UniProtKB/TrEMBL annotation:
<comment type="similarity">
    <text>Belongs to the glycosyl hydrolase 16 family.</text>
</comment>
<dbReference type="GO" id="GO:0004553">
    <property type="term" value="F:hydrolase activity, hydrolyzing O-glycosyl compounds"/>
</dbReference>
<dbReference type="InterPro" id="IPR006311">
    <property type="entry name" value="TAT_signal"/>
</dbReference>
<dbReference type="InterPro" id="IPR013320">
    <property type="entry name" value="ConA-like_dom_sf"/>
</dbReference>
<dbReference type="InterPro" id="IPR000757">
    <property type="entry name" value="Beta-glucanase-like"/>
</dbReference>
<protein>
    <recommendedName>
        <fullName>GH16 domain-containing protein</fullName>
    </recommendedName>
</protein>
<feature type="domain" description="GH16">
    <location>
        <begin position="320"/>
        <end position="595"/>
    </location>
</feature>
<dbReference type="GO" id="GO:0005975">
    <property type="term" value="P:carbohydrate metabolic process"/>
</dbReference>
Length: 684
């Protein structure tokens, strides 16, 4: 079913916008949070309802009648009803917009089902609540909200919000294997509302409480909820340790930029009449947010049916040069190179910011008829050979068939992505004669956007994939998948569309000097070269196909490699006593010097180095971008320097004879612009 915010949803969000008294603001001690029922906002005011696709779930107290609350229906792109069937456990909607009260000493709660998509969807949350802290000053963990947490456990709290009266704080929590808490000072007066904007962005979780930003801390990937643990407002586990009232809860998708965070905070504080409690330098202390600008309009992929249909006009022109030597590669620089000198694959949920590959990827069905267990499983499907500097994805049998797969981003979309450039792999598949089992190896990519906007199309580019039926038949294709969540928008296709770029036998009948059967036990090299005008696909130096570069090909993407097993793609059964290896020699990404020299919007110039390129000296990045959150990744001749993520890097003897480069991403700026420093001088 397609979800789109109805007029009622928009009216609800609009009613939550600023409502001023005749004097221009609500009084400092005003207890009411929302506007009077049925009132209309200032037509020029800024409010979250202007951006309905961002809002996953939203509850506003003005949607409820006074009295007992058996159900509180949310808005958003994935609406739910927070329910309570037991009358004695129902909270109360107070008069005069006093909020929804969960009383001390009770297990009053409103619950809704678990959401396995929370790790992707729940990127930020706004909560306006108040707690009777002054008379419960010894209390801790007074629950307000907990997503996926009724039974506790290590994969829940996505997010959790509570009060800590003993410290006078309002607390935001996530659990990434360890409980991570950020808290800010709040009012202990039950007459005052408190506003929190919590968020995770890149590898950092932070919160802003009543206008004050917390220090923040590192957050890793969140796991899906495997215990089916329900979500709740109030507390289902313990009696409430203090009275709590909730004005509104909004949970949103996408990574917020700083401007959006400031506006949400400003909107919330003006909504409850506490704008004078904002810091003196807050941009909305003197007046509320009022105008929409570019910061509220992040870039997103837009499906164009006419552009997509134009593929048909290409016809066999894409094969005009197949079998010929590929065009020469000029003016490219290697920006990423992994030759598996060490095993660079880490666990999908615990891998850090500087890691290279994450396994087994967030795609639980990537192995098709083979499971993709954690990298720590024994025997392992990730076999590193320190002598040959190779990594094998191993198809093996232990109770059932198992295999390996890895990605350049983790479960939450944290990691390495690239737009245009050359994406190259050198690999060897098992030497095995037909009839073969249903091997299904692939080197492919996804556009990153679908991990942050579940309402947007998922873009898949298969640089190549093979089956076990015919090792000489190469398949290259482009897919635009329907969104995880239906959302009515002319720039989103609600159904899958796909087109084969190339699908034929690589042999003399197709213009190649000889047959290239990938099950010959030899190494082969494939690459996709995505340029501004044309995209080329190449195997062993021979062109497979070329076509005009489409937006789907040029989108920022992350790499996936897998060795799947699909029973339907072979004519023999694999031998359970045998193992089958896809051996990877290296993976490389190159980009043009022109692309690397572009200064993106948001940067005043390319990032630059200060310091000397000598062992024992430090190179420090001058980012040339104004941003509160910057992510840095360091490279030595294109090889990632694992673990180095700071703005400075101390050179060592290992760097002698090499050039250093740093990739800088301004995570807190609109559209998260990124740029490379020029290469350093040769270290020596």
């Amino acid at each position: 079913m397609t979800n789109q915010l109805s007029r009622r949803d928009l009216a609800r969000a609009a009613c939550a916008a600023l409502v001023l008294t005749a004097s221009g603001r609500l009084g400092r001690d005003a207890r009411a949070a929302g506007p009077a029922q049925g009132s209309q906002p200032n037509a020029h005011s800024w409010h979250p309802g202007l951006f309905p696709e961002m809002i996953v779930k939203s509850w506003f107290q003005e949607d409820l009648a006074e009295g007992e609350v058996p159900s509180w229906q949310s808005g958003g792109v994935k609406p739910v009803a927070a329910m309570q069937a037991e009358p004695s456990l129902r909270p109360t909607k107070l008069p005069n917009n006093g909020g929804v009260l969960f009383k001390k000493g009770t297990k009053q709660a409103l619950t809704w089902p678990a959401d396995n998509d929370a790790p992707y969807l729940h990127r930020w949350w706004l909560v306006i609540a108040r707690c009777n802290s002054a008379v419960n000053a010894d209390a801790n963990n007074v629950s307000v909200l907990c997503v996926n947490g009724a039974e506790g456990g290590p994969v829940h709290r996505q997010p959790q919000v509570c009060f800590k009266p003993s410290a006078g704080t309002f607390v935001s929590r996530l659990h990434d294997g360890k409980l991570k808490s950020e808290e800010g000072l709040c009012s202990t007066d039950f007459g005052d509302w408190n506003v929190m904007v919590g968020y995770r962005r890149g590898f950092v979780m932070q919160a802003v409480v009543n206008g004050i930003k917390t220090a923040g801390q590192t957050i890793y990937a969140l796991a899906p909820n495997r215990m089916k643990s329900q979500s709740f407002m109030g507390d289902v586990n313990n009696p409430m340790r203090a009275d709590v009232a909730i004005d509104c809860v909004i949970i949103g998708q996408s990574e917020l930029n700083d401007s959006q965070i400031e506006r949400l905070m400003g909107w919330g504080m003006w909504r409850v009449g506490r704008q004078s409690a904002l810091p003196g330098d807050h941009p909305y202390r003197q007046s509320p947010p009022s105008a929409v600008d570019a910061n509220d309009k992040p870039e997103r992929y837009a499906f164009d049916s006419a552009s997509w249909a134009s593929w048909a006009a290409i016809g066999d022109e894409r094969y005009a040069h197949r079998g010929e030597a590929a065009p020469p590669i000029r003016a490219y620089t290697t920006v990423f190179f992994d030759d598996f000198e060490s095993n660079s694959v880490v666990d999908d949920f615990t891998g850090a910011q500087g890691s290279i590959w994450y396994a087994p990827t967030h795609l639980t069905t990537v192995g098709v008829d083979a499971a993709t267990p954690p990298i720590s499983a024994s025997p392992s499907s990730y076999v590193h050979d320190a002598t040959s500097h190779t990594l094998a994805l191993r198809l093996l049998h232990k109770g059932r068939w198992r295999t390996g797969a890895f990605s350049s981003v983790n479960n939450n979309g944290q990691g390495r992505c690239w737009g245009k450039g050359i994406f190259e792999i050198r690999a060897r598949l098992p030497k095995i004669l037909a009839p073969r089992p249903g091997f299904f190896p692939a080197f492919w990519a996804y556009g990153k956007e679908h991990l942050f906007w579940r309402t947007r199309n998922r873009l898949e580019t298969d640089f190549w994939e093979y089956d076990g039926l015919n090792g000489a038949y190469i398949n290259i294709s482009q897919h635009v998948h329907k969104p995880r969540l239906g959302y009515a928008d002319p720039h989103i296709t609600p159904r899958d569309v796909r087109r084969k770029i190339a699908g034929y036998q690589v042999d003399p009948s197709s213009g190649f000097p000889s047959t290239i059967d990938v099950y010959d036990g030899e190494f082969h090299t494939w690459y996709a070269q995505i340029e501004d005008d044309y995209t080329y696909f190449v195997i062993d130096g021979y062109e497979v196909a070329r076509l005009p570069t489409t937006p789907e090909l040029a989108v920022k993407k992350y790499i996936i490699v897998d060795f799947a097993y699909d029973k339907k793609k072979g004519r023999a059964q694999p031998d359970p006593s045998q193992t089958y290896d896809m051996v990877i020699d290296y993976i490389r990404v190159r980009q043009t010097e022109t692309e690397l020299a572009r200064v993106p919007t948001g940067f005043s110039a390319l990032p630059a180095f200060s310091g000397r390129a000598s062992p024992g000296q430090a190179l420090t990045v001058v980012p040339n971008v104004i941003a509160s959150q910057i992510e840095c990744l360091w490279y030595r001749d294109g090889v990632p320097i694992v673990g180095e993520i700071g703005t400075s890097y101390e050179l060592s003897s290992r760097d002698i004879g090499h050039k250093i480069r740093c990739h800088v991403r301004a995570v807190s700026v609109l559209d998260q612009p990124e740029a490379w420093t020029p290469e350093s001088e040769t270290v020596g």
